Amino acid sequence: MKNKLYFSAISKRAEEKAFDAIVEEQKSIGYYALPDQDIGPILEYCSSIPETIETIAVIGIGGSSLGAKAVYEFIKPVKELSRKLYFFESTDPININELLSKCDMNKTHFLVISKSGSTVETFSIYKYIYSLQQDPSFYTFITDPGSPLEKYALEIEASVLYLPDNVGGRFSVLSTVGLVPLALCGIDIKDLLTGAQMIKERFFDRGYVYDMLLEKAVYYAENHAQYSINCIFAYSETLKYFCQWYVQLWGESLGKHQRNSAFHVGLTPIGLIGPEDQHSFLQLIMEGTRDKSVTFIKIEDFHDDTTIPDITLPHLEMLDTLNNLPFSKLINMQCDSVIEALLDQNNIPLDTITIQSVTESNIGSLIFYYELLTSLVGELIDVNTYDQPGVEAGKIILKSKLQEL
Fold first, then answer.
1. In b/e form, how buried is each residue of 375-402, taking b as 16+ CB within 10 angstroms?
2. Which of 111-120, 190-199, 254-263 has the highest mean pLDDT?
3. Inter-CA distances, 8 with 148, 222, 266, 399, Å
4. Alpha carbon of 267 to those of 21, 246, 255: distances in Å?
C-alpha cells in the first residue's frame, strides 16, 4: 500500500506527542494487539461447522457487521469462496424477508453478535429468525463474558465465542467478530492479519508508515475547523462497503465533546465511489465550500484484462479512442484525471492511497491504517476515541419507549 500526500503538516512536536500517546494507549486499548493474535482457536472452531452448511448469516449491527462485510465484499468478486455470507443489520421487514428468501434454514449457520448482549436491533431480528429455526446447533453467539447473551446461550446449550478485552465494536473487525464469519466463508484470515501486522510494525518501528500517518493526522487536526469534512473517493466497486465501515469508524470515534473543554468537535466522513460519484458529488468538491479534504483510493492491478471492443459506432466515431482499452486502465485514468483537476484548485487538501491488488493482505493493511489514523486524530483533537455517548443516548430513549408500550 502506497500513500502520497499533497499537503504537509506544520507541527513536528504534535507528531511526537501523538505517537507517544498511542504507544501508551496500547496498554489499555485492545485492537492494537489483534494483528498478533493466535488464530488457531478460531480456525478450530470453524472446522467444527458441518460441511452441510452452505450459508453463514451474521445477525448484528454497526461494528458487529460492517467490518466483516467490508472485507467480504472486497474479496468476493475475485475469489471463489466456500460459503455465501449475508448480514442481517436492519429492522426493515422488507430487508429481513428478502435476505431470508436466500437462506435455506437447514443449511444456514447464524452468528449472533452483540458486545453488550442486549442490542435491541439484533435481538428483534434474532427472535424472528429463532421462530423459524429453533435448533440451537444452528447458532453461535459472540459477546462479552458475563453478558446477558452469554447466559442465554449457555442456557440453550449453544456455542459461545468471546470478544477480546477492550476492543470496541467499530475496531473489532480483526477479532472474532470479523474473523469467524470470514474464515467460515473461505477468506484467508491469516493473510488478512499479515497485512494489518505489516502496517503496525512499520508504524511503531518508525518505518515509512510512521511519517505518512503522523503527518496526515496532524494536518487533519490542525485544520479540522476549516476542513471538517473528509471524503474517501474509492475507484473500485469492491471498496463500497469499506467506505461504509470508514464512515462508522470516523464518525463514531471523532464526533465528540473535547476532553478538556466544552467544545463540540469532529470530522464528518463521506464515502464516495468512482466513477459514478465523479458525475455528482465531485461538483460539490470542485466548486463548493472549501471545507473538504479528499483521499483517493485506487487499485494498481485489478488482475482483469477485460477490454473495450474495437468497435466503431455510427455518429460516435470520436469515442474510438476507447477501443482496445482495458477497463482497469480506464478507471485509473478517470481517477488520475480527477486528482489532476483538483490539484489545479490549489486549496483542496488531498492524498492518494494505492492498493497493489485485491487481496486479503491489502484490505487488512487498509483497515489497520485507518484504525491507527482514527486513534491519532482522536488524540490530536482531544477526544475520547473509544466511547460513543451520543449513540448510547438514543439507545436509552428507545429502551424507555419500549418499556412504555
1. bbbbbbbebebbebeeeeeeeeeeeeee
2. 190-199
3. 49, 11, 20, 47
4. 20, 12, 7
The residue from 27, 279, 315, 401 that is catalytic is 279
- CATH number reported for the structural domain that contains residue 75 in this entry: 3.40.50.10490
Considering the domain architecture, whether residues 264 and 315 belong to the same structural domain is answered as yes
- Is 276 annotated as catalytic? no
252 has catalytic annotation: yes
Q: Per the residue annotation, which of 89, 252, 360, 371 is the catalytic one?
A: 252
Same domain assignment for residues 101 and 52: yes
Map residue 111 onto helix, strand or coil.
strand
Helical segments of 147-187, H only: 148-155, 176-184
Whether 69 sits among the annotated catalytic residues: the reply is: no
Same domain, 280 and 382: yes
* Domain hosting residue 140, numbered range: 30-187
Quote the number of domains for the chain: 2
* Cell of residue 318, nine digits: 470520436
Any alpha helices (H) in 259-384, and if so which ranges? 281-287, 327-343, 360-380
In a domain, 397, yes or no: no
Q: Give the closest residue to 161 by CA, choosing from 183, 177, 137.
A: 177
Whether the model pTM is above 0.70: yes
Of 76, 84, 240, 395, which residue is the catalytic one?
Answer: 395
Check: CB of residue 163 under 8 Å from CB of residue 115.
yes
Residue 396 lies in a domain: no
Q: Check whether residue 268 and residue 380 sit in a common domain.
A: yes
The per-residue pLDDT for range 344-389, each reduced to its tens digit, is: 987 899 999 999 999 999 999 999 999 999 999 999 999 999 998 8
Is residue 65 within 8 A of residue 121, CB to CB? The reply is no
Q: Could you give the residue ranges of the DSSP H alpha helices within 175-325?
A: 176-184, 189-204, 208-222, 240-254, 281-287
